[in-house]
Design a protein that fits this description.
Elements: H1 7-34, H2 41-60, H3 62-72, H4 80-98, H5 101-124, H6 127-148, H7 156-160, H8 168-191, H9 207-221, E1 228-232, E2 238-242, E3 245-250, H10 258-276, H11 292-306, H12 310-323, H13 325-328, H14 333-340, H15 356-373, H16 381-393, H17 419-438, H18 442-447, H19 452-461, H20 471-479, H21 486-499
Parallel strand pairs: 1-3
Antiparallel strand pairs: 2-3
This protein binds zinc ion.
């Protein structure tokens, strides 16, 4: 049989073309956020719509369904690598072809209009003006869940878009356990009465020096700048364009150290995952990241588990003092560590500390699963939000801008994504604990500014596998245990007991 007639090769050829089309869109989107002149926006929208249409039509062509069926029912059983690719292409194909075109277009159109409405509503802290949009989006997402099909909860097929294998019930079990474990620690910290001085984290931090310092730290961690770049944007992100080209971004503020620096470590963590994917498998599921939550675990390892640790700053604080003498010249290692790790309930998720961050995410997970199941009326979101926020974080939400209007996800029609932020922390804790056991002297190598052993461990145990395993399986394979809250809670307990002298 000739190569051209082999259904598997033909299928993989189409899938790769779609990946290339999507990588062209990623590059155009990156350019839009970084360098595109403002007046180019209409033309860019047309370019992106064309590419998205081409990719969608190519992938949902009935030919793809025929080739998949031919591979699945062929005379010879597929090998292990082929099986992974077929499993994932089947999953995506079914999801894309089950949605009626009318629904896809209505969702795109509604969210395009809802997004500016949300921007305006947030600015004025006026939920009322966004409420009809939220109602419409929730109705469409419920319709989407119906079209995709579900057994236990209509939220399940939405989670599956981001975290295949997880469900509302699996998430709710692990998140309630996490809540129960976090509450006493957060309470102890509050009861300690210690509130670290963080004043020096705002001060004179010239942007140019922040760029150099952040870039040096990302490079020391292992982000490969010969296959990547760092540029400035308003809302930071990382985008893997393809083999040899991974782009990270940061947002700088000349009087704030943390925002850009920890943002760079976070995005570099995402970037190192993309750089570690096997280029041989580019354009196939075996060359793609496992899930959004798993991707987030890689950013969290570098941002929190490494970047907020004592050994990391044993190496970097002297350098930070030299780079920012006006703000950090006389700050001790202990004061610095206490400041960057300060725990306090706050209203905005993306500004939250390592402990309360999880509670912010769990709140959104609870509300969005109730919205999708129909148990929560979208008009009641502010009341439900504020009440749950009080229970979880013990503070009164002052207004909707700092409450239910703060995140962009729902206005974009993104439901089922929030849980991945918390899963990322749980996966990260479990991977990091195992890496520390496997690599003797990891802390002292960090203190010497060497991070290559950790990156090598992540490459070998996580990055190189692509989508071979589902996130849960990969956690078990890499760490020898199924995912649990144990290691995240143990890490937080140990770290904050020391920092706060509990
Ligand atoms: Zn991230």
């Amino acid at each position: 049989m000739s190569q051209a007639a082999n259904p598997y090769s033909r299928l993989m050829g189409i899938y790769r073309e779609v990946a290339l089309l999507e990588s062209c869109s990623s590059l155009l989107q990156w350019d839009q956020e970084t360098f595109m002149p403002g007046r180019g926006v209409d033309h860019r929208a047309e370019q992106l719509a064309l590419l998205a249409g081409l990719a969608h039509r190519r992938f949902t062509d009935p030919l793809v369904g025929e080739l998949l069926a031919a591979c699945e029912n062929g005379p010879a059983a597929p090998g292990p690598a082929e099986s992974v690719n077929l499993r994932e292409i089947r999953r995506k194909y079914d999801k894309k072809t089950r949605l009626p075109c009318r629904l896809v277009e209505e969702l795109a159109q509604t969210t395009t209009q809802a997004h500016p409405a949300w921007v305006e509503a947030r600015k004025k802290s006026d939920f009322g003006s966004f409420s009809p949009w939220l109602k419409k989006i929730v109705a469409l997402k419920r319709e989407q869940a119906q079209a995709l099909g579900w057994q236990d909860s209509p939220y399940d097929p939405l989670v599956d878009d981001f975290e295949p294998g997880e469900t509302e019930s699996s998430l709710s079990a692990i998140f309630s356990e996490l809540c129960r474990g976090l509450a006493p620690l957060i309470e102890k910290i509050a009861d300690s009465g210690r509130d670290p001085d963080t004043s020096f984290l705002s001060g004179i931090y010239p942007v140019k020096r922040q760029q150099e310092f952040g870039r040096d730290a990302a490079a020391a961690c292992g982000f490969d700048f010969s296959s990547g770049r760092l540029d400035e944007v308003v809302h930071p992100f990382c985008t893997g364009i393809g083999p040899g080209d991974t782009r990270i971004t940061a947002s700088f503020d000349s009087s704030d150290f943390c925002r850009a620096f920890f943002g760079i470590l976070h995005e570099a963590g995402h970037g190192m995952y993309d750089q570690g994917l096997d280029p041989e498998h580019y354009g196939a599921p075996l060359g793609e990241a496992v899930s959004v939550g798993l991707h987030e675990s890689q950013s969290r390892i570098w941002e929190n588990f490494v970047g907020l640790s004592r050994p990391f700053w044993e190496h970097f604080l002297p350098r930070a003092r030299a780079a920012f003498p006006e703000a950090l010249g006389r700050v001790s290692l202990d004061s610095f560590l206490r400041a960057v790790n300060r725990v306090a309930p706050s209203f905005i998720r993306i500004e939250a500390d390592e402990l309360t961050y999880n509670l912010h995410v769990i709140l959104r997970f609870e509300l969005e699963s109730l919205l999708i199941s129909g148990e929560l009326d979208p008009a009641e979101v502010p009341a439900a939000w504020n009440e749950r926020f009080r229970q979880l974080l013990g503070v009164e939400v002052p207004d909707d801008r700092r409450g239910c209007l703060q995140d962009t996800h729902w206005s974009n029609g993104i439901f089922g994504y929030f849980p991945t932020y918390c899963l990322g922390n749980l996966y990260a804790a479990q991977f990091f604990a195992k890496a520390r056991r496997d690599i003797p002297g990891l802390d002292s190598s960090f203190a010497r500014g060497s991070f290559s052993d950790l990156l090598a461990w992540l490459r070998e145990n996580i990055h190189c596998h692509g989508m071979r395993f589902r996130a849960g399986e990969l956690v078990e394979k890499a760490t020898g245990k199924p995912l649990s809250t144990e290691l995240l809670l143990a890490y937080l307990q140990e770290k904050y007991t020391a920092l706060y002298n509990l």
